[in-house]
Amino acid sequence: MSVTVIKPGMLSSFQDRGREGYQHQGIPAAGAMDERAHRLANALAGNDGDPATLEITLAGPTLRFDAPACFALAGADLGATLNGKDIPLLRPLVARAGDVLAFGARPAVGVRVYLAVHGGFALTPVMGSETTYLRSGFGGFQGRALAKGDVIPLRRPLAQDRDLAALQQALWNVRVYLPATLGNKPRDAIRFLPGVHWPEFSQASRQAFSESEFRISPQSDRMGYRLIGPALSMNQPRQMLSEAACFGTVQVPSGGEAIILMADRQTTGGYPKIAQIATVDLPALAQYAPGHALRFQRIELDEAQRLDGERERAFVQLHEALAPLRALLA
Amino acid sequence: MPLNVNPVPPSPAETRWRILPQGDRCLIVSFGDQIDAAVGRTCLAAARKLRDARLPGVTDVVPSFVAVAVHYRPGGHGEGPTYAALSEQIQALLAAGIPTGDAGGREVDIPVCYGGEHGPDLEDVARAAHLPPDAVIRLHSEPRSMVFMLGFAPGHAYLGVHDEKLNIPRRPSPRTAVPPGAVAIANRQTVIYPNRLPGGWNIIGATPLVMFDPAREPAALLQPGDTVRFVPITPDEFDRIRGGRP
User: So what's the ipTM on this one?
Assistant: First the structure.
């Protein structure tokens, strides 16, 4: 009734939409870097709620299903195989007891792929969330990334007497129309809103941020992406008081090198904030590897909120369209 | 016992704030730009009022020394809250009055072993403040302090606002690892390190209490708005309270 970790991969940790309601205690929300892909994986595994999925980074793990399960993958193409055979993203799939899920059969396209199993992994919620906060070591599976030999129980494995061949065929016949707003087609520019200190940055810095090319530094992780590019500065540098920070806040320490705060950001930060990435483009950013070149494009707040809402509506549509899938697994 | 916070809460009429967006899922209500006990209390009271209002879509209300952040996300059907609608609601709530008289916190005693191996920077602080170490301890422990915010790390509390004489800058170079429980001051504030963390504040003592435990409810020992009394203890008492914990 579990999944056994044969090889842990580079960084595999359980994530959900994040730990909400505890930031005033200094507790970071964390959560999936690519929330869109995390939710897609859950939807395509026939899940109703939002159980944690396994966030898999670049070099994926090797996992053995010890019980039959329905699962789905969404996000980066990290060359997933089941018993050595290529398997697609964004499809509900069946694993039999003993089947081995592995990665790396093809060169990676993107950085993070999410593994959802039907019914979810049996994790103990901490402060209302199954998300792992790696830095402080709580949540998810024992507060850490997967390690060799871990056995992760499944909350609701498929019935032992289930006709898996018939289920697989039935799942294969389920049509999945992915609304365009849920896709992750490459973007020319990552959209942003001016940050709270935008007007205090020099004209040259504002122009550089809007028009220049930046590159994601190798010193980037779930906490933040450092950007290599033109140095940014304020007209009159001043000491900032520590204030709330968000997923996608772009802050600029005195060295002038911008940092985009990502999922594992601290709840507060004391550096000037030049920009805020539009929520709708955070998933695209989460799939950029170190070295990736990118540009930023300013949009207006109402446009950002319209795009954000549109994506939420697309998830509702997808959920409704997948009712037959959930019926098959019920 | 003298309170270290402004005894006369500002009336709502004198209170001014600015609401501004921080991206598409957060807004900031800003009450000032200088650390000040009265402003801090207003932030705590405003945060409490906004939290109690349970506004639809709002996920987190996070006070800091001079501002309150309100995190929100669109509903399941993509409907708001939009920034325009939410900021209007918040404006109306705050305009109706911010009850600054009661930050809603508890009174918490924090035992602190000052100086020695637990407070390696006490002597430096005393020198910088032109005071004997005992006087620094008195200035720190006799007046009550208030928890204005938590941030930087889970359960990491910022307290203040201390006597002007304790307006000491941070250390020129931060330590790479400060032990859990360290009580450190700078700029008329105290922080208490919940875990082993890097830090540049002046460590004047340590508490044997566990400041953060994710298995506890609430996980953070101190909450924004709590009033704290630092109670000086001896190294022996420190060891006794800490018991067998490392």
Answer: 0.96
